[in-house]
User: What shape does this take?
Amino acid sequence: MNQTKDILTSLLPLLVLFLIFYFLIIRPQRVQAKKHKEMVEGLQKGDKIVTQGGLICEVIKPESNFFKVKLNDNIEVKLSKNHVAYKLEDQAPTEGN
Assistant: This one.
């Protein structure tokens, strides 16, 4: 009985550290990845996106693993869905002081 209690008290700090690690690191990363995946899956024709390389382009046609995007009036390319960083929201730029 005493030996079982010693094992539990020695494992308790490890359990607490794991819970802290889970709630501060693992869980937020999963939530962020889920939101990003939903954003990428929800992109439609006409949406403006920024690639991981920093290019700003417009979605022309979503495909299974790629997007056909327009960089400018003359250049259309395919972009892997894995390389979409974020969607540019349709917001008017604000002027700062």
